[in-house]
Design brief:
alpha/beta; Glycerol-3-phosphate (1)-acyltransferase; six-stranded mixed sheet; two-stranded parallel ribbon; 10 helices; globular; transmembrane
């Protein structure tokens, strides 16, 4: 019934649902964070983190409903999701849109440890959302330009230290560490500026993935190589498409890759390992690109037959 409403009404319903559930659950997580600050005792901290994580899963269920409230949307999920909530995994994914975050929430809500994202430090100051992410121990990263590092060499490697500190926290609670390896959302302009060798992807950055494996590789049960695409007229939907009920298809391809010994090494100080890891990741990106291209060919063929 709600799918037949005019777009303004669909936007209002979805926006109010997202706002109220995020505010209520986020405020509850922040409330738990107050006790985490006041009670710096390891067993208590772990208990409070577990409670906050349960609320985070509840939020994932709430966000999953956004795909169903006002739109006739079809999920196309291929691959293996034979996971369990009490494990540790690392997601290695492409980044098409902000909608990707809601897609991962939908995937994680039932049978995956709740994901942790590497966030820009500016997001920390967003009321409720930023504070809630801090309580959930999500790492906030500062990006330094080459010019800034040239002026202040001591800033070099600061992100690496943040990654190491955050991943150590993840060892105490089942977690899926998310690496959007491209480092930013795809746009045609970014694709052109970076002279990408891929048709549908930006070149991947290997550092964050390599450091996550270096720190937690012995604890991860596998790498979830996730490819996300939105076939249709606009394959880079913005949140507006989701709120207005105009998102029709979401395609997700999942491969579980083993973590072999050759994927764990000192990325910062071992040039040979660095070269090897970059080649390995680039090959995965060529495979992702082929998956997305095959999808578009199938969609074009389906439209021609209509």
């Amino acid at each position: 019934m709600l799918t037949t409403l005019l777009i303004p009404f669909r936007v209002l319903i979805n926006f109010l649902w997202a706002l109220t559930t995020t505010a209520a659950i986020g405020a509850s997580i922040v409330f738990i964070g107050i006790f985490k600050l006041l009670l710096p005792i390891a067993p208590v901290q772990r208990l409070l983190s577990t409670l906050a994580n349960s609320l985070f899963r509840l939020w994932a269920y709430a966000m999953s409903l956004l795909f169903q409230l006002t739109q006739k949307m079809t999920w196309h999920i291929e691959g293996d999701l034979a996971l369990h909530k009490n494990g540790w995994y690392m997601i290695m994914g492409n980044h098409r849109s902000w909608v990707d975050v809601f897609v991962l929430m939908h995937l994680a809500r039932r049978n995956m440890p709740m994901p942790r994202f590497f966030l820009k430090r500016q997001l920390l100051w967003i009321p409720i959302v930023g504070w809630g992410c801090w309580v959930l121990d999500m790492p906030f990263m500062r990006r330094y330009s080459k010019d800034m590092i040239a002026k202040k060499p001591h800033l070099k490697g600061r992100d690496i230290v943040t990654t190491q500190r955050s991943c150590k926290k993840f060892k105490h609670i089942p977690t899926t560490v998310v690496n959007f390896c491209e480092g930013t959302r795809f746009t045609p302009q970014k694709h052109k500026n970076k002279n990408s060798p891929y048709r549908y992807l930006l070149p991947p950055k290997a550092g964050g993935t390599a450091f996550s494996l270096q720190i937690m590789g012995d604890q991860f049960e596998g790498i979830l190589d996730i490819t996300i695409a939105y076939p249709g007229k606009d394959d880079r939907p913005v949140v507006w498409h989701l709120l207005s009920g105009q998102l029709r298809n979401v395609y997700v391809h999942i491969r579980t890759l083993p973590i072999t010994d050759d994927l764990i090494g000192d990325y910062a100080n071992d040039p040979e390992f660095k070269t090897h890891f970059q080649k390995w990741l680039n090959q995965r990106w060529h495979e992702k690109d082929a998956i997305i291209e095959d999808l578009h060919e199938k969609m074009d063929l389906a439209h021609q037959r209509r």
